[in-house]
Every structure is written in structure tokens, then in C-alpha cells.
Amino acid sequence: MRPVLRRARGLVPLVALLALWQLFGTDDSVYFPRPSTWWTAMVAEWDNDRLVEAVAATSGRFVLSLAIATVIGALIGFAMAEVPVLDRSLNPTFEFLRVMPAAVTVPIFVLMLGYTNQMAVVAIVFSSMWPMILSTRSAAADIPPLLRDVGTTLHLSGLQVVRKILLPSLFPAVFLALRVAGPITFVVTLLVEMLTGITGTGSAIFLAQQSYQPSTVYGFICVVAIMALLVDVAAGRLEKAATAFGGARSRSGRTEQVPA
């Protein structure tokens, strides 16, 4: 209970700011409408199903893009660590591509794929897979040679080596990268929606701003903040669970008797 109270104390400045805003603000302000008007605006968006549609679109696009970025990034990073020639060939190009801002790459994907959901996913994946590539490549390169030799000593097949030795060793790095990539993916998802107008919370904020609906803008910003908090909490718990699982698998792999 005490940790919860300590965390709740961190919200005191925000609550105080919102209270002062509510007391001294006005409902018809163009820039700073009262927080109570945000709720009214979101109720209206809920009644029109626009809120549910926007949140569902952003959530689905985020989850799909993060999953694809995780798989592709982990495979590329592992391949680069295992094949030095591939690493030397791809590394300069990847170093150039990964520093490109997402806002610059979106128009390129629009030209290639049009204003489609597939384009949005490709653009998001492109900007989100770099932490996974770098983390997986580093973790795979740091696997001790002695640990790799265990598979040969025990006459394990290639699949058994991957399942019993490599995967447990890579688990912490993969999920640490997943925690880093999660917020990046969420931010890029919103950015792509804003730039392209594809259905989602990002485009809803942009359209409300263009239509001079400040209460709706602030309301959607609050919704986005809650979604971002959930993403961070989920990524943190997933990282802890996966790290514990990887450690358990590593310990069981050392003690399990494998037939020759």
C-alpha cells in the first residue's frame, strides 16, 4: 500500500495544476479551455463512436507494428552477429538509415504504398526495429564461445542449440529492446497518423486542432497519455517476466541431462 501512496504523491502537482486550471479558466477559451470541457468533448466523441474507432485503430496498428518490428529486428540482429560478412555489409547502411527521422521517411512510404494501413505499418516498423537490431546483435555477439561449445559437446541438434542455449541467452536483451522500442513505436504511430490522416488518435488530434476544437484536442491528448502509460507498464512487466523466464531456462539448461 505504501508504494502506491508514494507513487500517488507524484500526481499532486498535476492535480493541483488541473484544479487551478478549472477554477481560473473559461469554457470558451481558444487555447486553454477548462478540463471539464475535455470530458464533455470525449463523451461526445464516445457517443459518435469516433473515440472507440480512433483508439482501436491506433492500438491495433501499434501492436501489429511492434510485433513485426520485434521479429524482423531480432532476426536481422542475430544474423548480423552470426555472419560477420553480413554485419560488415549491412552495418554502414543501417547506421545511416536508423538516424533518419520518422517524419522524413513517411513521405517516401506514401509515394511507394499510398495512403493505406499497410503503408502506415511499414513506416512504423521501419522506424521501430532499430533498437531490436542493435540489442540482439550485441547480445548474440556477447554469447561466450564456451557456452556455444556446450551444444557440440552434448551433441545437440541445431534446433536444440537455439532452443536451449541461444534463446535463453538472448531473452533479456530482446525484451529490454522491446521496452525501448515500445514507446518509440507508439510515438511513431501517432506521428504517421498525424502526417497521413489515417484513422487513429493521432489524426483525431490533428483534425480537432485544424477545426479549432481545443477541448477535443486536450481530451484526445489525455487519452493518448493514458495509452502511453499502459504501454510503458506493460513493457516493464513483460521485460521482468521474460528475464525471469530466460534465467530459469538457462539454469534448467545447465542441469538438464540431455541424451547423446
TrEMBL record:
Q: Which residues cross the membrane?
A: 62-84, 96-115, 184-208, 215-235
**Where is the protein situated, by its record's location annotation?**
Cell membrane
Coiled coil (residue ranges): none
Q: Enumerate the SUPFAM superfamilies for this protein.
A: MetI-like
Q: Where is the ABC transmembrane type-1 domain?
A: 55-239
| CDD domains named in the record | TM_PBP2
Question: In the UniProt record, does the keyword Transmembrane occur?
Answer: yes
What is the protein's membrane topology class?
Multi-pass membrane protein
The protein's matches in InterPro entries, at most eight in alphabetical order, are given as: MetI-like (IPR000515), MetI-like_sf (IPR035906)
Q: Which UniProt keywords apply?
A: Cell membrane, Membrane, Transmembrane, Transmembrane helix, Transport
Q: Specify the domain of life of the species encoding this protein.
A: Bacteria
Q: What is its main location?
A: membrane
The UniProt similarity line reads: Belongs to the binding-protein-dependent transport system permease family.
Record's protein name? ABC transporter permease subunit
